[in-house]
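User: Round two. Same drill as before: sequence, then structure, for each protein.

Assistant: Same drill it is. First protein:
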Amino acid sequence: MIDALAVIKQACDIAGITAPENLTDELYKGAVAQDLYNHQARAALAVHPFSFAQDLVQLNRLLDAPIAGYSYCHQIPTEDLIIGVDRLTDQPTDPDYSFADFVKYGLKIHSNALDLYAVIRKQVGPHLWNPIFVNVVATGLASVLVLAIASDDKLSAQLKKDAYGDAREEMRGGLMRAAINSDQFTKPNKRMRMGNNPLTAAWLS
């Protein structure tokens, strides 16, 4: 099973530098590599709502008084591994429905929904990533490592472009584009879901 050290070793191979033996030994820069890896992984996961990093959770309803005009106040999770909220819903069984009648202040959601759920994006480990995304993070990490260790600006810039494309693509080009496309193929086509297809619905009626 692939883990953080495996991704770091892959990055070091790409960069042409010696990989650390572990992630805690300062002598071999393991702790530094771990910090750089964490940053690269979190940044890459923030680019797109990858399905392998998403989870559906029920929000805690607070006793705090909601703002005027709303009946309830809910709390967005605050765990360190949570990158953000991709969608709110009061109908968790409908994967296409998004709840929009709310206002957000800080980490609190004010609405008239008694129960609210959130699709959250988490900093999951590489054992859950798809293989192309592993290459994205490893190549992006290699671009940072080769700059920090070998001070090779040219190679660093090329590796970053390989991972994310040029600046105009806002980190959604290169290998990242392939990872996004690959993840999209794993998601059901909304237009063809049985409940949303009028032809199928008519045939079944």
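Second protein:
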Amino acid sequence: MHELNLEELSALLAVFERAGVQAGESMEGQLLSRIRTLHAEKEELDSMDFDDCLGGACKL
């Protein structure tokens, strides 16, 4: 299965925002919550400088 990149996740969040979807109990709201979580995780990974991890200095 194709994993969405940060740009694609950002686009999905924009679509949900324009549609007025709120995080919550509905299927759409649950999906929005999952996409937000994935976006935050992907953003964190993309911002890491893996050169800082040489020698075991960081934990992934």
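The first helix runs from residue 6 to 19.

User: Perfect.
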